[in-house]
Amino acid sequence: MPPRALSLQAFPLRDDTDCLWMADHDAFNALDVADVESAIRRLGQLPPAQSGLHVLNSDGGEVIVEPVSPIAVPQRLIKTLQRKGFRFVGTVREAEIPTLDAVRFAENAVATPAPRLSLVVLPFANLSGDPGQDYFADGVTESLTTDLSRISSSFVVGRHTAFAYKGKAADLKQIGRELNVRYILEGSVQRGSDRLRVNVQLVSAEDGNHFWADRFDKPISDLFEMQDEIVSRLANTLNAELLAAEARRAERSLNPDVMDLYFQGIARWNKRWTPDHMVQARSYFERALALDPDFVDALVGIAAVDAASATLFLVDDFQARLTAAETALTKALSLAPQHALAYMFLGIVLFMSNRAEQGIAECEHASALNRNLAEAHATIGAAKIFVGQAAETEACVREALRLSPRDEAVHRWMSYVGGAKLHLGFDNEAVSWLRQSLKANPNYPFAHLQLAAALAQLGKLEESRTTAKAGLSLDPGFTIRRLKAITFSDNLVFQAGGRRLIEGLRMAGVPEGASRGNSD
Description:
The protein has about 525 residues and is an alpha/beta fold. The chain is built from 20 helices and 14 strands.
């Protein structure tokens, strides 16, 4: 009779050698080992407690994995319990596999559906003709593996397993089956005398279809700086591409679960920030939260919608939205204290609530937790306006654009610079940045209104009124009263710039709205 084995979620384990066997021990590195041991020991299937789990890798090498923080583990394996800590919640069940020496790990994997957002980054090929350049291709692969693992709810196969495929002919569908992943990222690096070219493509492991491809072709300067920039750009782009792919899958689900609803909410969120899309996104996040009240990403999603709706003046209940967002984010951070996006959105809530300095600090903390979080830099740039430092906004936004030049949010980031230039009285520059914003997203209401104000300040009244009408057609409820009802900042420099915006809006014909006794 074959030795008894265990299946921990998608990973086969065995104990016939007093060790656990796993294709990639990196996946254990983020787990609370004590919780995993406890879950398996309850079934009477684990040897007595040791200093750590003995894990046999697929290449036969043995490592001892010590207990470490479970922060990065997807909620499908580790659940965060408020005020209690963490609990392993993965499925543990018996399975039968042949002996360890008989066949490879992958050929004996328990047949389970590939997890959502599961990905392997195959070793990038070095096409330079110089084996001495392998280190750069390997460095891009390793850094990208690490950075993609920061995507919320993702599972990224560890580098040790991925590098087992280095230099081998790749049957991508077979690799997908062996590693039980949905997506495969492969790429190549080619270095010439003075240029570096990196090609990448994202492939469906199920059918081999290509989702996305890109190429970087740049003059060689500092290789390590280039590696960081390439990895940051790829991580940001792939985040959006993977979430979009999962959202398309979720739309086909007849009985959507928590993650299906979350992905559909993200899809609406990423479409365009219009009132309708905000309502739709919030509805999906609410439905996900109804199924799991402690689902952190849904809490952050609801807070993001509320904060954005307030920030873009899409609602009249501005303060109520900010208060609700702060409450949701406080709960989210109590459940997941290292959630970078939660800190960033908390920063937005704070700087929109006359606490800009605190908001900047929270966004800086978010950036420290996730170096690729481009929007944190842009958000800091927006907050600079509120503390009277609008001249620093452009540099912050340019850093965000460097990290993620094709981001879904570039239109917002450009509008931050346009708004800063308008505050500073540089109206021609404001017009230039705001036109770029609207080129990236012509359905962005507040950029139309900012552009109308800047054009009015330049005396181009006819064009400003046409532009204002375009903005009001996208957000019919916008009024100057809605804008003036908010106490953004006590900073006198900011308030002076705000008066320029309001003056421009009035000249552009934006409606005043119901009076509340404030005439300035």
